[in-house]
Specification:
single chain; two-stranded antiparallel ribbon; mainly alpha
């Protein structure tokens, strides 16, 4: 299924490459390295600029990382916050996330606890005790991110980090993840669409500027995009004529790693079946596809099954979700009541699509109880996605006959259909969760969340497939339909606008006295 000819466009006129495309082809590796450097700097600035702890349960994620750094394994009776983590959370938590701005005199929040005088030590101690009594609903979550971040935390301790700097050190782990994702996006496109020069540059460029705020927080979702892309890449190789045994092994390992990062990555299992089905065109290829599917499934479950077995033995729950759902107020609807789910109502269904798309782009951080967002940017994210992704799907999956050899076109179409399947399956999973799950009346989550699951971060495994279709649509729209502008120019304008918009809506956050920059200036008080 590996595509050797992408049949992309060169310019609006289609005659000669534009000067930037020629420059990029001559210096491709250098350009990608510069993008990786940029994303590292960008992630550092935003991770340091946002105070601790974000609205996406960052306290719970940090506590779990802290426990894993001390050799924690999920088991009954260890859901309370670790005393060491409770101290760091109490001292560095900010009231600016869910607090009421009207309660702040002259618009100023109280000083961080690390600045408090000795006379208030008792109050600090009471806050620490309260955190130690809290239950952590993330304690039994899939372990891969927490294990890696825990090792990174230990490395920070060895390098002399402590206090709030150590907490931010865990956040800075995201820099390496995003650098790898940007680089791997280029590898993925170059491997499967080598002749589409615009995609080879555009996909890593879009990811380097992607405004999803979950990458500025401690959260397991940050690993979904690179691991899912790596699993998908190896899976395409498994069902190609060039398949080797090492490809089957790698595909199974990466699938298991994606599942051990986030349970929503279970979408990978039907993707395996979809890839095998598309590769089965003759009786002989059908037998081979079945064998390869079983081999990948077997390798994935050999690893993932260890975690499932541990959960059943230690928690009495295969998926380790029962206690988490109870803590956050989530209830399961009987199958017979699915038809009553709010998401099936027309206005809620439209809201589900809209909220999923915009939260996929910009995340869901809040500041003083309000989502950090720009209505105009949200409209751009949703409308451009609804317009460009279908055009990109048509361009990738229904190529013109004159582009490349028949084998190349077939490989490109199969890869495109598989990428499209990933997007559809992720959306389908969120819809299924919206039908199956709801919030208990009276709980806090029911008051701040819509009555459906529309959190785009659960779809981050589809980030590279999304970027491919989105930019293929942009390229087709400019080069084939209108022929009025260069896709490179529009991409530059778009990422510049996204970055400016992100900086503008986050400017007030960067002035917080609780962020890393102020923490560094107050180093003697840490």
């Amino acid at each position: 299924m590996t595509n050797q000819n992408g049949g992309g466009f060169s310019t609006a006129g289609g005659e000669k490459p534009v000067w930037f495309e020629t420059l990029f082809c001559r210096n491709e590796r250098t350009v990608i390295h510069l993008l990786c450097l940029f994303v590292a700097v960008r992630l550092f600035v935003f991770c340091a600029g946002f105070p601790l702890f974000s609205s996406v349960d960052e306290q719970a994620h940090f506590d779990t990382v802290y426990k894993y750094a001390r050799g924690y394994l999920p088991r009954k009776g260890v859901d309370l916050y670790d005393p060491g983590a409770a101290v760091l959370i109490a001292l560095h938590d900010t009231p600016e996330i869910f607090g009421d701005e009207r309660e702040c005199p002259d618009g100023k929040v109280p000083p961080p606890m690390w600045r408090w005088p000795p006379s208030k030590v008792e109050t600090v101690g009471q806050t620490i005790i309260l955190w130690q009594k809290c239950l952590n609903h993330e304690s039994a979550s899939p372990p891969l991110y927490y294990g890696l971040a825990g090792a990174w935390l230990d490395l920070g301790r060895l390098s002399g980090q402590s206090g709030g700097s150590l907490v931010y050190w865990v956040r800075f782990f995201n820099m390496g993840v995003m650098v790898f994702l940007t680089w791997y996006a280029h590898v993925f496109v170059r491997r499967h669409y080598p002749d589409r020069v615009f995609l080879r540059f555009g996909v890593p460029c879009l990811i380097a500027f992607f405004p999803q705020d979950i990458f500025y927080s401690m959260n397991a979702d940050i690993l979904s995009a690179p691991l899912f892309a790596a699993a998908l890449d190896r899976l395409i190789r498994v069902f190609s004529p060039e398949c080797r045994k090492s490809d089957v092994f790698a595909a199974g390992v990466f699938c298991a790693m994606a599942l051990l990062t986030k349970l929503t990555n279970i979408v990978m299992l039907p993707v395996i079946l979809l890839a095998g089905t598309m590769a089965a065109r003759t009786p002989e290829s059908r037998r081979l596809s079945v064998h390869r599917c079983l081999a990948v499934f077997g390798m994935a479950f050999l690893i993932f099954g260890v975690w499932l077995g541990w959960n059943e033995a230690m928690l009495g729950d295969w998926w380790a979700t029962r206690d988490k759902m109870r803590m956050v107020g989530v209830i399961e609807r009987p199958v017979t009541d699915w038809w009553r789910a709010p998401v099936l109502q027309p206005h809620y269904f439209v809201a589900f699509i809209w909220e999923t798309l915009i939260s996929f782009w910009r995340g869901s951080f809040v500041w003083f109880g309000k989502t950090i967002a720009s209505p105009s940017m949200d409209v751009f994210y949703a409308i451009s996605t609804l317009l460009l992704v279908p055009i990109g799907f048509r361009e990738i999956c229904f190529r013109r006959k004159g582009e490349g050899t028949a084998m190349d076109r077939q490989a490109g179409r199969m890869t495109g259909w598989l990428l499209a399947g990933v997007l559809v399956l992720f959306m389908g999973l969120l819809m299924l969760l919206s039908l199956r799950l709801g919030y208990r009346q009276g709980c806090r989550a029911a008051q701040i969340h819509p009555p459906f699951t529309a959190d785009g971060r659960f779809m981050l495994g589809a980030l590279i497939p999304f970027a491919i279709f989105y930019l293929a649509g942009l390229e087709a729209l400019t080069c084939r339909w209108f022929r009025c502008a260069s896709p490179y120019l529009l991409l530059f304008v778009m990422v510049a606008g996204i970055t400016c918009g992100e900086v503008l809506i986050s400017a007030h956050v960067f002035s917080s006295p609780y962020n890393w920059f102020h923490l560094t200036m107050d180093a003697p008080f840490r």
